[in-house]
Amino acid sequence: MLIAAEKYSKLIKDEAKRLGFAFCGIAKADFLEEEAPRLEKWLKEEMHGEMYYMENHFDKRLDPRLLVEGAKSIISLGFNYFTSDIQIDKDSPKISRYAYGVDYHTVIKNKLKSLLHFMQDEIGEVGGRAFVDSAPVLDRAWAKRSGLGWIGKNSNLINRKKGSFFFLCELIVDIELDYDLAPTKDYCGTCTRCIDACPTEAIVAPQIVDGSKCISYLTIELKNEIPDQFVGKMDNWMFGCDVCQDVCPWNRFAEPHTEESFKPHPDLLEMTKKDWEEITEETFQRVFKKSAVKRAKFSGLTRNIRFLGKS
């Protein structure tokens, strides 16, 4: 069985690489004992803001065996989305790099399904589910357990060779595999650049982000008006925020992705500040046809742009 597990794990990692994943690690499906008190405290202190869904399925978040019947292994994968492309008008409202192209949920889910089908063809009867940031799975905890990197002070997973500009996703499957048993050492050291640079002071302690203060939360998750306490503190971000990643020294190793689907719409990078302030719903639908930005809807994006104009 051990030999088979090693063989299957290698097959899976090789196929993941072929599909374009930057890395792949495997951990035993088990209870996340270390994360339990941290999650409970974070929720109790209401750092999830209006993301009330975070209060649901507490047990399933900590134990994937409750989420997927017969779960034995967590295959964690990372997919690079870094790009050196930037918006031309430096005064225009900014969009996080991850939302430049086609919605990553769609792109990566299809790749995960291909990987699962490959496993079923090569290994035999394999049951499992694919997860891309859309279910009660603690992505970073499993990525860390799988040896993909460590949790940085900005709470992102950081990889020594790739930085942190990548999406995390999982296949939770019902077969035993060869597990990567050595979590990566924490290499943040005494660096506090992400904490110091956060425009809204959302990183309240190493590895602890007050989500209710995070610009990504304020511009995407928050459905009500953005509180006036953040006037002048949004660093001109209208959808998401890359500040804590941009200042991270480990991202000097980030290399541009090669995924065609993640390339921005031709008009996106060329739009001026005036274009954004006068954006119509027709332009919004055209530029963000298959983008994750549609999550904010036209009303949400224009709310954010108006808020940036406050003083």
- Roughly how many Å apart are the termini? 65 Å
| Radius of gyration computed on alpha carbons | 20 Å
The tally of helices reads: 11
The helical percent reads 25-40%
Topology as a string of helices (H) and strands (E): HEHHEEHEHEEEHEEHEHHHH
* Global shape: globular
The residue ranges in which pLDDT falls below 50 over 5 or more consecutive positions are: none
The total of beta strands comes to: 10
Q: Pairing-aware structural class of the strands and helices?
A: alpha+beta
Average residue pLDDT:
94
Approximately how much beta-strand content do the residues carry?
A: 5-15%
What summary fits the major beta sheet? Answer: 4 strands, antiparallel
Neighbour order of strands in the largest sheet: 1-2-7-4
How many domains make up the coordinates? 1
Structural write-up:
Pfam families: Fer4_16, QueG_DUF1730. With 311 residues, the protein is an alpha+beta fold. The protein has helices at 2-18, 35-44, 58-62, 104-122, 139-145, 193-197, 215-221, 243-246, 273-277, 281-287, 297-308, and strands spanning 23-28, 73-80, 94-95, 128-131, 150-151, 157-158, 166-173, 203-205, 208-209, 237-239. Strand 5 (150-151) and strand 6 (157-158) form a beta hairpin. Helix 1 packs antiparallel against helix 4. The relative contact order is 0.18.
